[in-house]
Amino acid sequence: RKIEIDLREAIQGDMLRPYYQPLVDLSTGRITGFEALVRWPHPERGMISPAEFIPVAEETGLINALGGQMLHRACTDAARWPDDVRVAVNLSPLQFRTGNLLSLVMEALKQSGLPARRLELEITETLLLEKSSQVLATLHALRALGVRISMDDFGTGYSSLSYLRSFPFDKIKIDQSFVRDLGTNREAQAIVRAIISLGAGLGVTITAEGVETESELSCLRAEGCQEGQGFLFSRARPNAEIVGLLQAQS
Ligand code: G
Ligand code: G
Ligand code: MN
Ligand code: NA
């Protein structure tokens, strides 16, 4: 397939770049960190969305090389940001199976000089479906380094609360589908409220994804949600704009 050939070439040529979307503390309005979201500037097609090529990367195994490059670059970029600003990197379940993830992370931290406490790794519920002891051991080892582990897209997929008992997450990200329906849908509001209360009980930070409107924001604040992310605050931006963005708020 053409997209596979092009993607392989883009990875070999180190053409992919993380863009960074702010994570905002809802009580202070300040940026606490950024999520790295991969972007592919394609020579013929312009900017291609990860929604299109991450699945291709996962099918072909290219996700290991892609994920490694993103992790290294995100740590290197973040090492130059202020010391209280974190970076969050998405991990594919495949990176737990085939790659040596633990040493990849250690190497990225060492090469970049980024302190482990400033790195968050986002994983999805599908990773925990199979209840693999190897996956749990890797997560515990990453956490022992001081890296924070976030549960991404919470509430979609095959949510089972049992994994919250077997692994202590640092953060749970409420999927944007619940946030989008907050104003109009009583069920969505009840679910968001329940997740926030779950987070308080577990001592886990709750982040709302896909915040687009002021009314969603005030609803989330009223429910006691600590952190938000979404177009209301900012889209993902290239690293060249990040330091300026942070200076503007200080
Ligand atoms: O940036 P956004 O537009 O369109 O991202 C789409 C999807 O791609 C999201 O589900 C996001 O988690 C995923 N994604 C973005 N960057 C990465 C990455 O570096 N690695 C992995 N595994 N997924 C990513
Ligand atoms: O799966 P993950 O949460 O990593 O994906 C983040 C995705 O959500 C990216 O595709 C990003 O571009 C997208 N996104 C971020 N903020 C918003 C928002 O406010 N609204 C919508 N519709 N998408 C968003
Ligand atoms: Mn994510
Ligand atoms: Na998500």
UniProtKB/TrEMBL annotation:
Protein name: Diguanylate cyclase/phosphodiesterase
Full-sequence range covered: 483 to 732 of 749
Coiled coil: none
Organism, as annotated: Bradyrhizobium canariense
Domain EAL: 1-250
